């Protein structure tokens, strides 16, 4: 059952008058959301699920801890891990290409971009983790002290992802002409050395990459999502192919339940979680302790949660209006509930 989102309550006054259109749910009323009775209840056409993972976050911790696999093994479901992926786009490509059944709880923005481009992807579940820690960082020895100083500079971002949208939001908030800043599109493995070598002046990046870079390159924040961004315009999502979700509704539900259990454990055990993540990330104890300090919490939402989808639609519209997404999309048409 979906829970009331604390985040939404804390943002309600700010969102008043923002034009959240109830019309976006016309699709649900007309049956574009697949109702539960349409899905073959108990259907499972495979006993193996291929799950994407990256070098941080919930999937990495689940892979290292092993309980996710045990939970599903008790239901005769074998887990195969696919990855690691540097960001969500290649994870989505693996799903579309047939080498993975689920992405790795990545950003909704590249998933929407892939859907707009014609990929038959659907969102099966959502997660909001807090605090949010994506940031725009610069070297402390640079001449950049604020977002306004980015005019005329090069900033590394990942295309149609967290990095790009955060930079757009920061420039807009501080009245900096977007055209005055050079967006350098790099995936994280390439962006890190580019930032360290000074080939870009700033980097917009998420945890743990931004935390590692801040420590490794003596960098500082000039915009921090958790405190400087006034609203969420991107979420963590569990993405699959529509056909797979429909044909394997029982398996998808089992996977979702296992993720929820994993998220509860991570929320309740921040130190143990970060020790597991550090094992794979091989970063310093200082970075690890910084991440432990976030005391990160995970909150999950069903794919058809009306309140969540209203906020998600608002985010998608914001992204399309700023050309981060190529056009508008009705998000309720691209979710499957099980």
From TrEMBL:
Keywords, sorted A to Z: Signal, Transport
Domain Solute-binding protein family 3/N-terminal: 48-269
InterPro entries per record: Solute-binding_3/MltF_N, SsuA/THI5, TAT_signal
Domain of life: Bacteria
Entry function: Part of a binding-protein-dependent transport system for aliphatic sulfonates. Putative binding protein.
Similarity remark: Belongs to the bacterial solute-binding protein SsuA/TauA family.
Name of the featured protein: Putative aliphatic sulfonates-binding protein
Source organism (scientific name): Lampropedia hyalina DSM 16112
């Amino acid at each position: 059952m979906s829970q009331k989102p604390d985040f939404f309550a804390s943002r309600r006054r700010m969102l008043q008058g923002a034009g959240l259109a109830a019309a976006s749910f016309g699709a649900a009323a007309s049956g574009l959301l697949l109702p539960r009775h349409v899905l073959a209840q108990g259907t499972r056409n495979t006993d193996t699920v291929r799950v994407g993972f990256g070098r941080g976050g919930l999937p990495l911790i689940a892979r290292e801890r092993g309980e996710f696999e045990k939970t599903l093994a008790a239901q005769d479901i074998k887990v195969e891990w696919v990855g690691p992926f540097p960001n969500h786009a290649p994870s989505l490509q693996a799903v579309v290409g047939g080498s993975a059944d689920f992405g790795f709880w990545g950003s909704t923005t590249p998933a929407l971009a892939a859907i707009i481009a014609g990929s038959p992807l659907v969102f099966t579940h959502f997660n909001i983790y807090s605090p949010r820690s994506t940031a725009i960082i610069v070297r402390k020895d640079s001449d950049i002290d604020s977002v306004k100083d980015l005019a005329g500079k090069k900033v590394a971002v990942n295309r149609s992802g967290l990095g790009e949208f955060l930079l757009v939001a920061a420039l807009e908030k501080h009245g900096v002409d977007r055209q005055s800043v050079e967006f350098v599109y790099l995936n994280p493995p390439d962006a890190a050395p580019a930032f360290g070598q000074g080939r870009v002046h700033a980097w917009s990046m998420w945890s743990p990459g931004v935390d590692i870079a801040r420590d490794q390159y003596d960098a500082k924040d000039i915009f921090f999502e958790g405190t400087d961004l006034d609203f969420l315009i991107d979420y963590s999502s569990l993405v699959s192919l529509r056909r797979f979700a429909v044909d394997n509704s029982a398996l998808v539900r089992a996977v979702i339940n296992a993720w929820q259990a994993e998220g509860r454990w991570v929320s309740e055990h921040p130190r143990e979680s970060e020790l597991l993540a550090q094992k794979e990330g091989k970063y310093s104890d200082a970075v690890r302790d910084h991440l432990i300090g976030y005391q990160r919490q995970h909150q999950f939402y069903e794919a058809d949660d009306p309140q969540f989808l209203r906020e998600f639609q608002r985010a998608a519209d914001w992204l399309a209006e700023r050309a981060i997404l190529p056009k508008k999309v009705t998000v309720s048409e691209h979710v499957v509930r099980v």
